[in-house]
Amino acid sequence: MRGKFFTIVFIVLTTKVDGLPNLYAGQCPLLVPSSMTTKIPSQLGKKRPHFITIAHRGASDSLPEHTLPAYRLALELGADYIEADLVATKDNKLVSIHGIDLNTTTNVALLYPERHRTITLDGKNTSGYFVFDFTLEEVQTLRVKQRIGGRSTFFDFTFSIPTIQDIVNLLHDWNHNIIVKNNSTKRSGIYAEFKNPQYYLQQLNISLVDIFLQEMDRNEYADKMFFNTKNQTKFGCERMNEYQVPPLVIQCFDIETLREMRSKLHSKGMAQPSYVLLANAKQCHLPDFWSRVDKLGFLSGIGPDKKCVISETAGKEFINQAQKLNLAVHPYTSREEIEFVTSQFASAEDELRWLYCSRGITGMFVESLDLGVKIGTRGCEDFQEMQEQKDSTEMKKEGNDKHKHATLSQESCSQHNNKNVTTMKSATWIMIGTCLGLWMSRWFSKIGQSIDMGILKKLSIGKMNSRKSLITFKENMVTLIKVGSIHLKMKVKAKTR
Ligand SMILES: *[C@@H]1O[C@H](CO)[C@@H](O)[C@H](O)[C@H]1NC(C)=O
Ligand SMILES: *[C@@H]1O[C@H](CO)[C@@H](O)[C@H](O)[C@H]1NC(C)=O
Ligand SMILES: *[C@@H]1O[C@H](CO)[C@@H](O)[C@H](O)[C@H]1NC(C)=O
Ligand SMILES: *[C@@H]1O[C@H](CO)[C@@H](O)[C@H](O)[C@H]1NC(C)=O
Ligand SMILES: *[C@@H]1O[C@H](CO)[C@@H](O)[C@H](O)[C@H]1NC(C)=O
Ligand SMILES: *[C@@H]1O[C@H](CO)[C@@H](O)[C@H](O)[C@H]1NC(C)=O
Ligand SMILES: *[C@@H]1O[C@H](CO)[C@@H](O)[C@H](O)[C@H]1NC(C)=O
Protein backbone atom coordinates (compact mmCIF):
# COMPACT_ATOMS: atom_id res chain seq x y z
CA MET A 1 0.00 0.00 0.00
CA ARG A 2 2.61 2.47 1.08
CA GLY A 3 4.67 1.72 -2.02
CA LYS A 4 1.68 2.44 -4.19
CA PHE A 5 1.07 5.67 -2.36
CA PHE A 6 4.59 6.87 -2.98
CA THR A 7 4.48 5.81 -6.59
CA ILE A 8 1.32 7.81 -7.05
CA VAL A 9 2.76 10.86 -5.29
CA PHE A 10 5.80 10.60 -7.48
CA ILE A 11 3.87 10.22 -10.70
CA VAL A 12 1.49 13.03 -9.83
CA LEU A 13 4.42 15.29 -9.07
CA THR A 14 6.32 14.51 -12.22
CA THR A 15 3.29 14.75 -14.49
CA LYS A 16 2.09 17.93 -12.90
CA VAL A 17 5.32 19.76 -13.43
CA ASP A 18 6.44 18.40 -16.73
CA GLY A 19 3.32 17.25 -18.49
CA LEU A 20 4.78 13.96 -19.71
CA PRO A 21 2.61 10.85 -19.54
CA ASN A 22 2.93 8.50 -16.57
CA LEU A 23 4.83 5.95 -18.53
CA TYR A 24 7.77 8.30 -18.75
CA ALA A 25 7.68 9.48 -15.20
CA GLY A 26 10.55 7.33 -13.97
CA GLN A 27 10.31 3.61 -13.50
CA CYS A 28 9.71 3.87 -9.81
CA PRO A 29 10.47 6.31 -7.07
CA LEU A 30 13.90 6.48 -5.55
CA LEU A 31 12.37 7.87 -2.43
CA VAL A 32 11.67 5.33 0.23
CA PRO A 33 9.67 6.19 3.33
CA SER A 34 11.97 7.95 5.74
CA SER A 35 13.28 6.29 8.82
CA MET A 36 11.39 8.69 11.03
CA THR A 37 7.92 8.04 9.72
CA THR A 38 8.13 4.30 9.25
CA LYS A 39 8.60 1.44 11.61
CA ILE A 40 11.78 -0.25 10.62
CA PRO A 41 11.84 -3.95 11.28
CA SER A 42 14.33 -4.43 14.03
CA GLN A 43 15.07 -7.98 13.07
CA LEU A 44 17.27 -8.98 10.24
CA GLY A 45 15.19 -11.29 8.15
CA LYS A 46 13.51 -11.11 4.82
CA LYS A 47 12.66 -7.50 5.43
CA ARG A 48 14.98 -4.82 4.20
CA PRO A 49 15.33 -1.39 5.70
CA HIS A 50 14.60 1.78 3.86
CA PHE A 51 18.09 2.90 3.16
CA ILE A 52 19.91 2.80 -0.16
CA THR A 53 23.55 1.79 -0.16
CA ILE A 54 25.44 3.06 -3.18
CA ALA A 55 28.87 1.55 -3.72
CA HIS A 56 31.01 4.60 -4.43
CA ARG A 57 33.25 3.49 -7.34
CA GLY A 58 32.69 -0.14 -6.28
CA ALA A 59 33.96 -1.61 -3.03
CA SER A 60 36.73 0.93 -3.33
CA ASP A 61 38.02 0.56 0.21
CA SER A 62 39.13 -2.97 -0.63
CA LEU A 63 39.93 -3.00 -4.33
CA PRO A 64 41.08 -0.37 -6.84
CA GLU A 65 38.10 1.84 -7.71
CA HIS A 66 36.05 1.48 -10.89
CA THR A 67 37.17 -2.04 -11.76
CA LEU A 68 34.97 -5.07 -12.36
CA PRO A 69 36.24 -6.91 -9.28
CA ALA A 70 35.49 -3.81 -7.15
CA TYR A 71 31.94 -3.66 -8.52
CA ARG A 72 31.44 -7.36 -8.10
CA LEU A 73 32.68 -7.35 -4.54
CA ALA A 74 30.29 -4.47 -3.80
CA LEU A 75 27.37 -6.55 -5.07
CA GLU A 76 28.45 -9.49 -2.97
CA LEU A 77 28.56 -7.27 0.09
CA GLY A 78 25.00 -6.07 -0.46
CA ALA A 79 25.17 -2.87 -2.50
CA ASP A 80 21.86 -1.60 -3.85
CA TYR A 81 23.77 0.22 -6.56
CA ILE A 82 27.22 0.15 -8.04
CA GLU A 83 28.34 3.63 -8.97
CA ALA A 84 30.02 4.11 -12.34
CA ASP A 85 31.62 7.36 -13.59
CA LEU A 86 31.37 7.57 -17.36
CA VAL A 87 33.75 9.24 -19.82
CA ALA A 88 34.25 8.70 -23.56
CA THR A 89 37.39 7.52 -25.35
CA LYS A 90 38.76 8.95 -28.60
CA ASP A 91 36.70 6.39 -30.53
CA ASN A 92 33.53 7.26 -28.62
CA LYS A 93 33.30 4.30 -26.30
CA LEU A 94 32.17 4.79 -22.72
CA VAL A 95 34.49 3.60 -19.99
CA SER A 96 34.32 3.99 -16.24
CA ILE A 97 36.96 6.01 -14.43
CA HIS A 98 36.59 8.82 -11.95
CA GLY A 99 37.88 11.63 -14.15
CA ILE A 100 39.14 12.49 -17.61
CA ASP A 101 42.79 12.38 -16.43
CA LEU A 102 43.93 8.77 -16.63
CA ASN A 103 47.05 9.52 -14.60
CA THR A 104 45.23 9.77 -11.29
CA THR A 105 44.57 6.05 -10.93
CA THR A 106 46.47 4.24 -13.69
CA ASN A 107 49.96 3.53 -15.04
CA VAL A 108 49.35 5.71 -18.11
CA ALA A 109 52.39 7.93 -17.46
CA LEU A 110 54.59 4.87 -17.77
CA LEU A 111 52.99 3.42 -20.89
CA TYR A 112 52.18 6.58 -22.84
CA PRO A 113 54.49 9.34 -21.56
CA GLU A 114 54.17 11.36 -24.77
CA ARG A 115 50.41 11.81 -24.39
CA HIS A 116 50.76 14.31 -21.57
CA ARG A 117 49.22 17.68 -22.41
CA THR A 118 47.44 20.74 -21.07
CA ILE A 119 43.82 21.65 -21.73
CA THR A 120 41.55 24.45 -20.53
CA LEU A 121 38.94 22.86 -18.30
CA ASP A 122 36.33 25.09 -16.68
CA GLY A 123 38.54 28.09 -17.37
CA LYS A 124 41.64 26.55 -15.79
CA ASN A 125 44.76 25.14 -17.41
CA THR A 126 44.76 21.47 -16.51
CA SER A 127 47.55 19.01 -17.29
CA GLY A 128 47.19 15.28 -17.61
CA TYR A 129 46.71 12.25 -19.81
CA PHE A 130 43.19 12.66 -21.07
CA VAL A 131 40.95 9.75 -21.81
CA PHE A 132 39.62 11.35 -25.02
CA ASP A 133 43.16 11.20 -26.49
CA PHE A 134 43.14 7.40 -26.21
CA THR A 135 41.28 4.73 -28.15
CA LEU A 136 39.44 2.05 -26.21
CA GLU A 137 42.11 -0.44 -27.18
CA GLU A 138 44.76 1.79 -25.66
CA VAL A 139 42.70 2.45 -22.54
CA GLN A 140 42.40 -1.29 -22.03
CA THR A 141 46.14 -1.71 -21.85
CA LEU A 142 46.19 0.41 -18.68
CA ARG A 143 45.95 -0.99 -15.16
CA VAL A 144 44.29 0.65 -12.17
CA LYS A 145 45.68 1.37 -8.72
CA GLN A 146 44.22 2.25 -5.33
CA ARG A 147 43.62 5.99 -5.02
CA ILE A 148 43.59 6.47 -1.28
CA GLY A 149 46.73 6.24 0.83
CA GLY A 150 46.70 3.71 3.66
CA ARG A 151 44.45 1.25 1.83
CA SER A 152 45.59 -2.06 0.45
CA THR A 153 47.85 -1.73 -2.58
CA PHE A 154 47.84 -5.47 -3.05
CA PHE A 155 45.83 -5.36 -6.25
CA ASP A 156 47.49 -2.31 -7.78
CA PHE A 157 48.02 -2.60 -11.53
CA THR A 158 46.12 -5.88 -11.74
CA PHE A 159 42.73 -4.87 -13.13
CA SER A 160 41.81 -2.84 -16.19
CA ILE A 161 39.34 -0.03 -16.84
CA PRO A 162 35.89 -1.47 -17.58
CA THR A 163 33.60 -0.38 -20.40
CA ILE A 164 29.93 0.38 -19.81
CA GLN A 165 29.23 -2.88 -21.67
CA ASP A 166 31.29 -4.83 -19.12
CA ILE A 167 29.42 -3.19 -16.26
CA VAL A 168 25.93 -3.78 -17.64
CA ASN A 169 26.85 -7.40 -18.34
CA LEU A 170 28.22 -7.84 -14.84
CA LEU A 171 25.03 -6.47 -13.33
CA HIS A 172 22.86 -8.62 -15.55
CA ASP A 173 24.82 -11.69 -14.60
CA TRP A 174 24.51 -10.85 -10.92
CA ASN A 175 20.79 -10.11 -11.02
CA HIS A 176 19.72 -12.87 -13.37
CA ASN A 177 22.15 -15.70 -12.81
CA ILE A 178 23.88 -15.46 -9.48
CA ILE A 179 21.53 -13.88 -6.98
CA VAL A 180 18.51 -15.71 -8.36
CA LYS A 181 20.15 -19.04 -7.62
CA ASN A 182 20.49 -17.92 -4.04
CA ASN A 183 16.71 -17.55 -3.86
CA SER A 184 17.01 -13.83 -3.36
CA THR A 185 14.50 -11.43 -4.85
CA LYS A 186 16.77 -8.46 -4.34
CA ARG A 187 18.09 -6.82 -7.49
CA SER A 188 20.85 -4.27 -7.69
CA GLY A 189 21.33 -1.41 -10.08
CA ILE A 190 23.75 1.02 -11.68
CA TYR A 191 24.10 4.62 -10.49
CA ALA A 192 25.81 6.21 -13.48
CA GLU A 193 27.43 9.64 -13.61
CA PHE A 194 28.40 11.58 -16.71
CA LYS A 195 31.74 13.28 -16.14
CA ASN A 196 32.58 16.65 -17.69
CA PRO A 197 29.69 16.46 -20.17
CA GLN A 198 29.98 20.16 -21.04
CA TYR A 199 33.66 19.83 -21.96
CA TYR A 200 32.82 16.93 -24.26
CA LEU A 201 29.99 18.86 -25.82
CA GLN A 202 31.67 22.22 -26.29
CA GLN A 203 35.30 21.27 -26.95
CA LEU A 204 34.91 17.90 -28.64
CA ASN A 205 31.41 18.12 -30.12
CA ILE A 206 30.47 14.88 -28.38
CA SER A 207 27.29 14.25 -26.44
CA LEU A 208 27.93 11.72 -23.68
CA VAL A 209 24.17 11.13 -23.58
CA ASP A 210 24.14 10.12 -27.27
CA ILE A 211 27.05 7.78 -26.73
CA PHE A 212 25.39 6.30 -23.68
CA LEU A 213 22.22 5.62 -25.64
CA GLN A 214 24.23 4.04 -28.47
CA GLU A 215 25.98 1.81 -25.94
CA MET A 216 22.64 0.82 -24.43
CA ASP A 217 21.36 0.00 -27.91
CA ARG A 218 24.33 -2.26 -28.46
CA ASN A 219 23.89 -4.14 -25.20
CA GLU A 220 21.71 -7.21 -25.32
CA TYR A 221 20.44 -6.82 -21.74
CA ALA A 222 20.19 -3.06 -21.27
CA ASP A 223 16.82 -2.62 -22.87
CA LYS A 224 15.17 -5.27 -20.77
CA MET A 225 16.92 -4.23 -17.61
CA PHE A 226 16.62 -0.47 -17.90
CA PHE A 227 14.25 0.75 -20.56
CA ASN A 228 11.61 -1.84 -21.30
CA THR A 229 8.32 -0.03 -21.02
CA LYS A 230 6.08 -3.12 -21.05
CA ASN A 231 7.19 -4.87 -17.92
CA GLN A 232 9.30 -2.20 -16.34
CA THR A 233 8.09 -2.92 -12.86
CA LYS A 234 9.20 -6.53 -13.04
CA PHE A 235 12.73 -5.41 -12.59
CA GLY A 236 12.49 -1.78 -11.76
CA CYS A 237 10.30 -1.80 -8.69
CA GLU A 238 11.43 -4.89 -6.94
CA ARG A 239 9.57 -4.87 -3.68
CA MET A 240 10.52 -6.24 -0.37
CA ASN A 241 8.19 -4.71 2.13
CA GLU A 242 7.99 -1.52 0.14
CA TYR A 243 11.70 -1.29 -0.38
CA GLN A 244 12.34 -0.37 -3.97
CA VAL A 245 15.42 -0.49 -6.06
CA PRO A 246 15.23 1.04 -9.51
CA PRO A 247 17.83 -0.51 -11.80
CA LEU A 248 19.27 2.66 -13.33
CA VAL A 249 19.91 6.07 -11.84
CA ILE A 250 21.46 8.86 -13.88
CA GLN A 251 23.35 11.39 -11.80
CA CYS A 252 25.14 14.54 -12.88
CA PHE A 253 26.29 17.92 -11.59
CA ASP A 254 25.07 19.39 -14.86
CA ILE A 255 21.35 20.05 -15.15
CA GLU A 256 21.46 20.38 -18.94
CA THR A 257 22.79 16.85 -19.31
CA LEU A 258 19.95 15.42 -17.22
CA ARG A 259 17.49 17.38 -19.35
CA GLU A 260 19.11 16.14 -22.56
CA MET A 261 18.89 12.52 -21.41
CA ARG A 262 15.28 12.85 -20.43
CA SER A 263 14.16 14.49 -23.62
CA LYS A 264 16.09 12.04 -25.84
CA LEU A 265 14.61 9.03 -24.07
CA HIS A 266 11.21 10.62 -24.31
CA SER A 267 11.46 11.12 -28.04
CA LYS A 268 12.52 7.49 -28.43
CA GLY A 269 9.49 6.37 -26.38
CA MET A 270 11.69 4.66 -23.82
CA ALA A 271 11.10 4.37 -20.08
CA GLN A 272 12.91 6.90 -17.95
CA PRO A 273 15.50 6.05 -15.32
CA SER A 274 15.60 7.95 -12.03
CA TYR A 275 17.50 11.24 -12.15
CA VAL A 276 19.65 12.62 -9.36
CA LEU A 277 21.19 16.08 -9.39
CA LEU A 278 24.57 16.25 -7.68
CA ALA A 279 25.51 19.36 -5.75
CA ASN A 280 28.84 20.33 -4.24
CA ALA A 281 29.16 22.28 -1.01
CA LYS A 282 29.08 25.59 -2.89
CA GLN A 283 26.14 24.81 -5.18
CA CYS A 284 23.85 23.49 -2.46
CA HIS A 285 23.91 26.82 -0.66
CA LEU A 286 23.23 29.02 -3.67
CA PRO A 287 20.09 31.06 -3.06
CA ASP A 288 18.36 29.81 -6.21
CA PHE A 289 19.30 26.15 -5.73
CA TRP A 290 15.88 24.91 -4.67
CA SER A 291 13.93 27.01 -7.14
CA ARG A 292 16.05 25.54 -9.95
CA VAL A 293 15.47 22.03 -8.63
CA ASP A 294 11.76 22.69 -8.34
CA LYS A 295 11.61 24.06 -11.88
CA LEU A 296 13.37 21.00 -13.23
CA GLY A 297 10.49 18.90 -11.95
CA PHE A 298 11.56 15.41 -12.94
CA LEU A 299 14.26 14.67 -10.36
CA SER A 300 14.01 11.68 -8.04
CA GLY A 301 16.72 12.83 -5.71
CA ILE A 302 19.64 15.08 -4.81
CA GLY A 303 23.21 13.89 -4.28
CA PRO A 304 24.81 16.59 -2.14
CA ASP A 305 28.25 16.81 -0.57
CA LYS A 306 27.66 15.58 2.97
CA LYS A 307 28.72 19.05 4.17
CA CYS A 308 25.43 20.33 2.75
CA VAL A 309 23.37 18.26 5.19
CA ILE A 310 25.53 18.11 8.31
CA SER A 311 25.64 21.74 9.43
CA GLU A 312 23.08 22.49 12.12
CA THR A 313 20.69 24.98 10.51
CA ALA A 314 21.58 24.92 6.82
CA GLY A 315 21.76 21.13 6.87
CA LYS A 316 18.37 20.74 8.47
CA GLU A 317 16.88 23.22 6.03
CA PHE A 318 18.38 21.29 3.12
CA ILE A 319 16.66 18.07 4.20
CA ASN A 320 13.38 19.92 4.80
CA GLN A 321 13.44 21.39 1.32
CA ALA A 322 14.17 18.00 -0.23
CA GLN A 323 11.34 16.38 1.72
CA LYS A 324 8.97 19.12 0.61
CA LEU A 325 9.74 18.24 -3.00
CA ASN A 326 9.61 14.49 -2.32
CA LEU A 327 13.22 14.02 -3.25
CA ALA A 328 15.54 11.32 -1.99
CA VAL A 329 18.78 12.61 -0.45
CA HIS A 330 21.91 10.55 -1.13
CA PRO A 331 24.97 12.43 0.11
CA TYR A 332 28.57 11.64 -0.83
CA THR A 333 30.84 10.16 0.60
CA SER A 334 31.17 7.86 3.59
CA ARG A 335 34.76 6.64 4.02
CA GLU A 336 35.96 4.77 7.06
CA GLU A 337 39.32 6.49 7.50
CA ILE A 338 39.07 9.04 10.29
CA GLU A 339 40.48 11.87 8.17
CA PHE A 340 37.37 11.71 5.97
CA VAL A 341 34.92 11.72 8.88
CA THR A 342 33.30 15.06 9.78
CA SER A 343 35.06 16.32 12.87
CA GLN A 344 32.14 16.14 15.28
CA PHE A 345 31.85 12.37 14.88
CA ALA A 346 34.11 9.75 16.38
CA SER A 347 33.85 7.36 13.47
CA ALA A 348 32.37 6.85 10.03
CA GLU A 349 29.77 4.62 11.66
CA ASP A 350 28.64 7.39 14.03
CA GLU A 351 28.53 9.84 11.16
CA LEU A 352 26.46 7.61 8.90
CA ARG A 353 24.12 6.53 11.66
CA TRP A 354 23.49 10.14 12.66
CA LEU A 355 22.93 11.18 9.04
CA TYR A 356 20.40 8.40 8.61
CA CYS A 357 18.63 8.30 11.94
CA SER A 358 18.78 11.92 13.02
CA ARG A 359 19.12 14.01 9.91
CA GLY A 360 16.98 11.78 7.71
CA ILE A 361 18.97 11.02 4.58
CA THR A 362 17.59 8.15 2.50
CA GLY A 363 20.80 6.62 1.22
CA MET A 364 24.52 7.30 0.92
CA PHE A 365 27.53 6.82 -1.32
CA VAL A 366 29.77 4.56 0.73
CA GLU A 367 33.15 2.98 0.12
CA SER A 368 32.88 0.44 2.90
CA LEU A 369 29.86 -1.60 1.91
CA ASP A 370 29.53 -3.53 5.10
CA LEU A 371 29.21 -0.27 7.01
CA GLY A 372 26.42 1.00 4.76
CA VAL A 373 24.54 -2.28 4.86
CA LYS A 374 24.97 -2.50 8.63
CA ILE A 375 23.56 0.98 9.26
CA GLY A 376 20.61 0.34 6.97
CA THR A 377 19.84 -3.08 8.37
CA ARG A 378 20.04 -1.96 11.97
CA GLY A 379 17.43 0.73 11.39
CA CYS A 380 16.79 3.53 13.83
CA GLU A 381 14.48 2.10 16.42
CA ASP A 382 17.21 2.04 19.02
CA PHE A 383 18.77 5.33 18.00
CA GLN A 384 18.95 7.71 20.92
CA GLU A 385 20.41 11.00 19.98
CA MET A 386 21.46 12.36 23.37
CA GLN A 387 23.07 9.17 24.51
CA GLU A 388 24.68 8.69 21.19
CA GLN A 389 26.23 12.13 21.22
CA LYS A 390 27.53 11.67 24.73
CA ASP A 391 29.02 8.38 23.71
CA SER A 392 30.55 9.87 20.65
CA THR A 393 32.36 12.62 22.57
CA GLU A 394 33.77 9.98 24.87
CA MET A 395 34.71 7.76 22.00
CA LYS A 396 36.20 10.64 20.14
CA LYS A 397 39.08 10.92 22.57
CA GLU A 398 39.68 7.24 22.23
CA GLY A 399 39.30 7.49 18.47
CA ASN A 400 41.90 10.24 18.24
CA ASP A 401 44.36 8.21 20.20
CA LYS A 402 43.65 5.24 18.02
CA HIS A 403 44.12 7.37 14.96
CA LYS A 404 47.51 8.59 16.12
CA HIS A 405 48.53 5.07 16.81
CA ALA A 406 47.25 3.96 13.44
CA THR A 407 49.16 6.68 11.62
CA LEU A 408 52.36 5.86 13.40
CA SER A 409 52.25 2.23 12.53
CA GLN A 410 50.43 2.61 9.25
CA GLU A 411 53.09 1.12 7.11
CA SER A 412 53.65 -1.96 9.18
CA CYS A 413 49.90 -2.27 9.65
CA SER A 414 49.05 -2.27 5.99
CA GLN A 415 51.77 -4.76 5.29
CA HIS A 416 50.37 -6.90 8.01
CA ASN A 417 46.87 -6.67 6.67
CA ASN A 418 47.83 -7.45 3.15
CA LYS A 419 50.44 -10.07 3.37
CA ASN A 420 50.67 -11.65 6.78
CA VAL A 421 48.41 -14.62 6.43
CA THR A 422 49.18 -16.84 9.32
CA THR A 423 46.08 -18.68 10.45
CA MET A 424 45.28 -22.22 9.49
CA LYS A 425 42.17 -21.09 7.71
CA SER A 426 44.12 -18.70 5.55
CA ALA A 427 46.64 -21.35 4.72
CA THR A 428 43.88 -23.60 3.49
CA TRP A 429 42.60 -20.82 1.29
CA ILE A 430 46.00 -20.22 -0.17
CA MET A 431 46.28 -23.87 -1.04
CA ILE A 432 42.88 -23.91 -2.66
CA GLY A 433 43.66 -20.70 -4.50
CA THR A 434 46.99 -21.92 -5.73
CA CYS A 435 45.59 -25.24 -6.92
CA LEU A 436 42.81 -23.50 -8.71
CA GLY A 437 45.30 -21.06 -10.15
CA LEU A 438 47.40 -23.90 -11.47
CA TRP A 439 44.39 -25.66 -12.88
CA MET A 440 43.18 -22.49 -14.52
CA SER A 441 46.54 -21.59 -15.96
CA ARG A 442 46.68 -25.05 -17.53
CA TRP A 443 43.21 -24.61 -18.85
CA PHE A 444 44.07 -21.23 -20.27
CA SER A 445 47.30 -22.41 -21.84
CA LYS A 446 45.42 -25.29 -23.44
CA ILE A 447 43.56 -22.79 -25.53
CA GLY A 448 46.65 -20.89 -26.39
CA GLN A 449 46.53 -18.26 -23.68
CA SER A 450 48.82 -17.62 -20.83
CA ILE A 451 47.55 -16.07 -17.67
CA ASP A 452 49.51 -14.49 -14.92
CA MET A 453 49.65 -17.00 -12.07
CA GLY A 454 50.38 -14.15 -9.70
CA ILE A 455 47.07 -12.53 -10.48
CA LEU A 456 45.11 -15.66 -9.73
CA LYS A 457 46.96 -16.31 -6.53
CA LYS A 458 46.48 -12.75 -5.38
CA LEU A 459 42.81 -12.85 -6.21
CA SER A 460 41.93 -15.92 -4.24
CA ILE A 461 43.91 -14.85 -1.21
CA GLY A 462 42.96 -11.22 -1.35
CA LYS A 463 39.25 -11.83 -1.67
CA MET A 464 39.33 -13.71 1.53
CA ASN A 465 41.32 -10.98 3.19
CA SER A 466 39.37 -8.01 1.98
CA ARG A 467 36.13 -8.73 3.81
CA LYS A 468 35.78 -11.78 5.90
CA SER A 469 32.01 -11.96 6.01
CA LEU A 470 29.56 -12.99 3.31
CA ILE A 471 31.92 -13.97 0.57
CA THR A 472 31.53 -17.63 0.07
CA PHE A 473 33.88 -20.03 -1.56
CA LYS A 474 31.60 -20.36 -4.52
CA GLU A 475 31.36 -16.63 -5.03
CA ASN A 476 35.12 -16.45 -4.93
CA MET A 477 35.45 -19.02 -7.62
CA VAL A 478 32.88 -17.34 -9.79
CA THR A 479 34.73 -14.04 -9.52
CA LEU A 480 38.00 -15.71 -10.32
CA ILE A 481 36.66 -17.39 -13.37
CA LYS A 482 34.92 -14.24 -14.49
CA VAL A 483 38.01 -12.10 -14.18
CA GLY A 484 39.95 -14.81 -15.95
CA SER A 485 37.52 -14.95 -18.81
CA ILE A 486 37.39 -11.18 -19.16
CA HIS A 487 41.16 -11.14 -19.53
CA LEU A 488 40.85 -13.96 -21.99
CA LYS A 489 38.19 -12.23 -24.03
CA MET A 490 40.28 -9.09 -24.21
CA LYS A 491 43.29 -11.02 -25.36
CA VAL A 492 41.33 -12.90 -27.98
CA LYS A 493 39.83 -9.66 -29.25
CA ALA A 494 43.24 -8.01 -29.43
CA LYS A 495 44.61 -10.98 -31.38
CA THR A 496 41.82 -11.22 -33.88
CA ARG A 497 42.02 -7.53 -34.70
C1 LIG B 1 23.26 -16.66 -0.27
O1 LIG B 1 22.48 -17.27 0.72
C2 LIG B 1 23.19 -17.64 1.88
C3 LIG B 1 22.27 -18.41 2.80
O2 LIG B 1 21.04 -17.80 2.89
C4 LIG B 1 23.76 -16.38 2.53
O3 LIG B 1 24.51 -16.69 3.68
C5 LIG B 1 24.67 -15.69 1.53
O4 LIG B 1 25.15 -14.48 2.07
C6 LIG B 1 23.92 -15.40 0.26
N1 LIG B 1 24.84 -14.88 -0.74
C7 LIG B 1 24.67 -13.71 -1.31
C8 LIG B 1 25.70 -13.32 -2.27
O5 LIG B 1 23.71 -12.99 -1.08
C1 LIG C 1 51.03 11.28 -12.57
O1 LIG C 1 50.57 10.84 -11.31
C2 LIG C 1 51.59 10.66 -10.34
C3 LIG C 1 50.94 10.17 -9.09
O2 LIG C 1 50.11 9.12 -9.35
C4 LIG C 1 52.32 11.95 -10.10
O3 LIG C 1 53.37 11.74 -9.19
C5 LIG C 1 52.86 12.48 -11.40
O4 LIG C 1 53.44 13.75 -11.19
C6 LIG C 1 51.78 12.59 -12.43
N1 LIG C 1 52.40 12.94 -13.69
C7 LIG C 1 51.99 13.95 -14.43
C8 LIG C 1 52.80 14.22 -15.64
O5 LIG C 1 51.03 14.62 -14.14
C1 LIG D 1 46.94 28.78 -19.86
O1 LIG D 1 48.14 28.58 -20.54
C2 LIG D 1 48.33 29.48 -21.65
C3 LIG D 1 49.58 29.07 -22.44
O2 LIG D 1 50.56 28.54 -21.60
C4 LIG D 1 48.42 30.90 -21.12
O3 LIG D 1 48.57 31.80 -22.18
C5 LIG D 1 47.13 31.22 -20.37
O4 LIG D 1 47.22 32.50 -19.78
C6 LIG D 1 46.85 30.18 -19.29
N1 LIG D 1 45.53 30.40 -18.77
C7 LIG D 1 45.27 30.41 -17.49
C8 LIG D 1 43.86 30.62 -17.09
O5 LIG D 1 46.11 30.20 -16.62
C1 LIG E 1 16.60 -22.26 -3.11
O1 LIG E 1 15.32 -22.86 -3.10
C2 LIG E 1 15.30 -24.19 -3.59
C3 LIG E 1 13.86 -24.69 -3.64
O2 LIG E 1 13.15 -24.24 -2.56
C4 LIG E 1 16.18 -25.06 -2.70
O3 LIG E 1 16.21 -26.39 -3.21
C5 LIG E 1 17.59 -24.50 -2.69
O4 LIG E 1 18.42 -25.22 -1.81
C6 LIG E 1 17.59 -23.03 -2.28
N1 LIG E 1 18.93 -22.49 -2.43
C7 LIG E 1 19.52 -21.72 -1.51
C8 LIG E 1 20.89 -21.23 -1.83
O5 LIG E 1 18.99 -21.41 -0.46
C1 LIG F 1 29.22 18.14 -34.39
O1 LIG F 1 28.80 16.81 -34.59
C2 LIG F 1 27.62 16.70 -35.38
C3 LIG F 1 27.27 15.25 -35.50
O2 LIG F 1 27.38 14.60 -34.29
C4 LIG F 1 27.87 17.29 -36.76
O3 LIG F 1 26.67 17.24 -37.49
C5 LIG F 1 28.35 18.72 -36.62
O4 LIG F 1 28.69 19.21 -37.88
C6 LIG F 1 29.54 18.79 -35.70
N1 LIG F 1 29.91 20.19 -35.49
C7 LIG F 1 31.15 20.62 -35.60
C8 LIG F 1 31.36 22.06 -35.33
O5 LIG F 1 32.05 19.89 -35.89
C1 LIG G 1 8.53 -8.90 -20.27
O1 LIG G 1 7.48 -8.93 -21.21
C2 LIG G 1 7.69 -9.79 -22.30
C3 LIG G 1 6.54 -9.67 -23.26
O2 LIG G 1 5.81 -8.54 -23.02
C4 LIG G 1 7.84 -11.22 -21.79
O3 LIG G 1 8.10 -12.08 -22.87
C5 LIG G 1 8.98 -11.29 -20.79
O4 LIG G 1 9.06 -12.58 -20.23
C6 LIG G 1 8.75 -10.29 -19.69
N1 LIG G 1 9.93 -10.26 -18.83
C7 LIG G 1 9.86 -10.53 -17.56
C8 LIG G 1 11.14 -10.44 -16.81
O5 LIG G 1 8.82 -10.83 -17.01
C1 LIG H 1 52.44 -11.99 11.36
O1 LIG H 1 51.68 -11.48 12.42
C2 LIG H 1 51.97 -12.04 13.69
C3 LIG H 1 51.04 -11.40 14.69
O2 LIG H 1 49.71 -11.60 14.31
C4 LIG H 1 53.43 -11.78 14.04
O3 LIG H 1 53.75 -12.39 15.29
C5 LIG H 1 54.32 -12.33 12.95
O4 LIG H 1 55.68 -12.01 13.21
C6 LIG H 1 53.92 -11.79 11.60
N1 LIG H 1 54.70 -12.42 10.55
C7 LIG H 1 55.28 -11.76 9.55
C8 LIG H 1 56.00 -12.59 8.54
O5 LIG H 1 55.18 -10.55 9.43
From TrEMBL:
Record Pfam families: GDPD
- The signal sequence is 1-19
Q: What is its EC number?
A: 3.1.4.46
Query: Which InterPro entries does the annotation name?
Result: GP_PDE_dom, PLC-like_Pdiesterase_TIM-brl
Q: State the top-level EC class.
A: hydrolase
GP-PDE domain residues are: 51-376
What does it catalyze?
A: a sn-glycero-3-phosphodiester + H2O = an alcohol + sn-glycerol 3-phosphate + H(+)
For the keyword Ion transport, the answer is: no
Q: Where is this region: Disordered?
A: 388-415
Give residue spans, biased composition: Basic and acidic residues: 388-401
PANTHER family according to UniProt: GLYCEROPHOSPHODIESTER PHOSPHODIESTERASE GDPD5-RELATED, GLYCEROPHOSPHORYL DIESTER PHOSPHODIESTERASE
Write out the similarity annotation: Belongs to the glycerophosphoryl diester phosphodiesterase family.
Official protein name in the record: glycerophosphodiester phosphodiesterase
Tell me the organism.
Answer: Chaetoceros tenuissimus
